[in-house]
Every structure is written in structure tokens, then in C-alpha cells.
Amino acid sequence: MLRQDAVQAGLEVQTATAVRPGPGVRQTARDYLALTKPRIVVLLLITTVPAMVLADGALPSIWLVLLTLAGGTLSAAGANAINCYLDRDIDGIMHRTRGRPLPAGAIEPERALLFGVALGLAGFEVLALGVNLLSAALATSALLFYVFVYTIWLKRSSPQNIVIGGAAGAMPPVIGWAAVTGSLDWPALVLFGIIFLWTPPHFWALAQRYRADYARAGVPMLPVVRDEAETNRQILLYSVLVVAASVLLAPVGGAGYVYLGTALALGAGFLWLALRLWRNPRPSASRALFLYSLLYLGALFVAIALDRVVALPA
Q: CA nearest 286: which of 204, 195, 198?
């Protein structure tokens, strides 16, 4: 019943929303850029370069880095644009996403879909021709996984949507590793695991704030289908796992003291905030964990690159 109401509401929003006539070139460019969700893309790219540095043992060729970032950006942007096309009905229901280009009527849905597909194809071509076929295949696989497994299958059907679907967002360091080595090795899989395990506590902390939005749209995010206590217990569990995975990079990936010390310090902060949320749940605690999780991931991967520069083995 919840899902039927959400679908009906989405149809009403789409019916009531007309495509805006004649926007200027600059505004149109902004709208298409918004389809790519640039903030998410930047966060993903932050995890690519340190993986390349770790794989190379130093800073790789600047052209290799630029081509890998370009191809990865195009692939991730394409996945996000296709996601906007597929989720335009529920985006129109949720207060947080009503202003996106499709529910706002700024771009015709079919053009958004073509835009996303074109970006994905361009990303594959840049990586295949400029880097190597493995990195191109991995980037395109991440796009397809995000579209078909997360967006189409899991997002509207399972509270495990963000857990399993998070595999797509964990691919950038694997792509970066493959770009340098042309192969997959254990350190790349550990980097994948760090982001994969980081995604649930990061996203659930945010989803708690927008629980009513997700419920209105019929999306079974964990805070919607489980009570607050269980959600916070799961957040704490995954926080422990991500910190453990981050420490594992030292023995498996050869990370040194700079990285290990940073990982332990950042991990202590992550665990403290997750424990505080579990013991004393309140909106300010979940918001603090969400914001810290962004700092955590960025600083952790910067530490990977710095560790190679300092080169003090653990």
C-alpha cells in the first residue's frame, strides 16, 4: 500500500510539472551538471588518486592520472544521470530532491537518459583507449551495477539497498589500481572493502534525517523499516568493520606508519561518534557522524598518498 501511494504521488507530481520553456544556455548547463551529482563524483575521485599512488609506490604519470580521472568522472556522472532518470518519480515526492532538474521540469527525461548513456560510453572509451581495458571494464561494470542492481532492483525493494548497492561506489580505488598495474591485487580489494563498509554508516546517518521523505516515497531505507535503536546498532557494527578494514591495509598493502597512525586516530573518532549515537540517539548525533564520515574518508585516502611520499614502513 505504501508503495502504491508513493507511485500515485509520483504520477501526480509528474502530471503537475511542466517542462520549463526556453532556459538560457548557462542555466541549461547547470541543470545537466546537476544530473551528474558532482559532489558525489568528487568524493569518488578523491579515493582514486591515492590508490594509484599506492599501486605505483610514487606519483604515477600525470597523464595517466588525468586520463583515469577523466574516464572515471564520465562513468560516474553517467551513472548518476541515469539514476536521476529512473528515480524522477520518487525525486518529485521527496522534499530533499524536488528541486532536481527532472522533477522540476528543467530537462526532458529522455534527454537526461541519453545524456547519461553518452557519458557512460565516453567514460569507457577514454579509459579503454587512454589507460587500459581492465580499468574501462571495471568503470562500466560499476555503472551497470549502480543502475541495474541498486537503482532498478534493490533501492525500492530491500533495506539492504545501500549495503549491496554500495559496491558501485567502492570501485574508484580499484579502477585506479587497475589503471597503474593492469591487474587486481589484495590491496585494491582492501581499499574496495573500506569504502564498501563505510557506505552504510555514512548513508544511514543521513537517511535518519530524511526518514519521513523516504517513507513518503516508499523507499525501504533501513531507518524507515527498522526502529532507531536497530538502525544505530547497525551503524555501530559497520563502523567497527570499516575501522578494522582500514587497519588491515597496513599488513596487506604495505602502508606505513603515517597511514597507520592516521587510520587509528580517524577510526577512534568514527567509533566514538557511532557509539555516542547508539547510546544517546538524537538528530545532532547522527548529523555529526554523517559530517565526520565525509572527513574520515577523505583524510584516510589522503593519508595513503602521503604515506608513500614519506615512505616509513610499519
A: 204
